[in-house]
Design brief:
By secondary structure, this protein is an alpha/beta fold. The chain has 16 helices and 18 strands. 36% of the residues lie in helices and 21% in strands.
Length: 427
């Protein structure tokens, strides 16, 4: 088969090949398989795909007779992982902010850039003037870059519109991207991302708009899978965050939080009280926040791309999270200002190198735990029977290579939503 990922043409996904059959000669990724029959170490494994679902997972030598006649796909000893999950992105926006990168190199802080008219507000201006089609065309290659590395599910936040019509535009584009490219997209309403210029000095009025008009309208249109807030001294207070969470709770929508990135605001503990799916960034997370997240089952999402781009030096409390048993996800945080990252594998390397995650922790962070951070734990993040067929076959000798290489684009096979989205080149 031709080695390709989904083209931008809307018919490209529909034209991809059905993945049904027996995928044999696989090497299971440790900790990321739940086999129907245990696979002895060193023995080849297989995955049976029927009607887009993984129907059986186990050792090739014990493949049930009922599947023996199915078509065969030889993986040639490839390492098999679940499809990757990028659980925190701001993928849909207008323009770019390379000038701010230069400002930071010259010594400006994140807060100084924001006060100078840069930051989120500059992306808001560019997003508001862009049409829905223009936003789609700008976001499509970003999504394709992530998908080419095996991403099978991605979260896309709004938050660069900060007005109903423009937040709607972002979320509509996110939905369109999922449909056009055959990838699972979870949409997150981030109306409380920054205070729009027209509401300067009137934060409560804007929070009222978010809670009473924007969120109900967008939820009624089926555009909101989760609600997020940027809780920080340059953004929204704990009280304002709580108002947004209460509005989401009334609508039965789960919440997430940009928490403790620049300071310890106590946001993680607040989010945990609302049963938050995740708290993200968390460089300044406190012991109380960790305990609250553990009790609530809230995932800690690590964003090494933003840490790196901002040249941060305050590490997230990895050892304490590990000791408490709080699941740690890893994501690109793709956004135009502080993490213009389009490689989840690079984030794995950064998480290991900068944050000292182990390889198994980092790989669970872009599969199992990332799926939990999106509420997709029953459909993504593991290779197991009864789930949609989302998996990646990597031509590597061991799992550590996925964290080891810098900039390598593995010639992998990607099965996404039960179809062969990308096939490894024939030797």
């Amino acid at each position: 088969m031709q080695n390709k990922d989904n083209p931008s043409h809307p018919n490209g996904w529909a034209a991809s090949q059905n993945a049904d059959g027996v995928w044999q000669n696989l090497k299971p990724a440790p900790g990321l398989w739940v086999a129907d029959v245990p696979v002895p170490e060193g023995q080849p494994a297989c995955v049976v795909v029927q009607q887009g679902q993984m129907a059986w997972v186990g050792p090739e030598a014990q493949l049930p007779a009922s599947y023996q006649a199915l078509p065969r796909h030889n993986a040639r000893g490839a390492l098999a992982t679940p499809g990757l999950v990028d659980c925190h992105t701001h993928l849909v926006y207008g323009g770019q902010r390379a000038n701010e990168f230069a400002m930071r190199l010259a010594g400006a802080t994140y807060e100084e850039v924001a006060k100078a008219g840069g930051g989120i507000v500059s992306s808001v201006k560019a997003t508001r003037v862009a049409t829905e089609d223009e936003l789609f065309d700008q976001a499509a290659p970003r999504l394709q870059a992530l998908m080419a590395e095996g991403v099978c599910a991605v979260e896309i936040k709004s938050g660069y519109g900060l007005a109903l019509e423009h937040e709607r535009k972002q979320l509509r584009v996110a939905r369109r991207l999922g449909e056009a490219f055959g990838v699972t997209v979870r949409t997150t309403f981030l109306g409380a991302h920054a205070l729009p210029p027209e509401y300067a000095g009137r934060s409560q009025a804007y929070v009222d708009l978010v809670c009473k008009e924007m969120l109900p309208a967008l939820a009624a249109e089926g555009l909101v899978d989760a609600v997020d807030v940027f809780c920080e001294r340059i953004a929204f207070t704990l009280a304002e965050t709580s108002q947004v969470f209460q509005a989401a709770q009334k609508l039965g929508i789960p919440v997430k939080l940009h928490a403790e990135q620049l300071s310890d605001m106590g946001g993680a503990a607040l989010a945990a009280r609302y049963g938050a799916l995740s708290c993200d960034h968390i460089e300044h997370l406190s012991a109380d926040g960790i305990a609250a997240m553990k009790a609530a089952g809230t995932v800690a999402v690590l964003l090494p791309g933003a840490y790196y781009t901002l040249r941060d030096t305050h590490l997230p409390p990895i050892a304490q999270l590990r000791a408490a048993g709080v699941p740690m996800a890893v994501s690109t945080d793709h956004n135009p200002g502080t993490s213009p990252a389009l490689s989840l594998l690079l984030m794995v390397n950064m998480a290991c190198t900068l944050f000292r995650l182990t390889v198994p922790e980092a790989l669970a962070g872009i599969t199992t735990h990332a799926a939990h951070a999106l509420g997709l734990q029953d459909s993504h993040g593991l290779i197991a029977s009864g789930r949609p067929a989302n998996f990646v076959l990597w031509p590597v000798g061991e799992a550590a290579e996925l964290a080891y290489w810098l900039g390598q684009k593995p010639d992998c096979t990607i099965v996404r939503q039960g179809r062969i989205a990308r096939a490894r080149s024939e030797a």
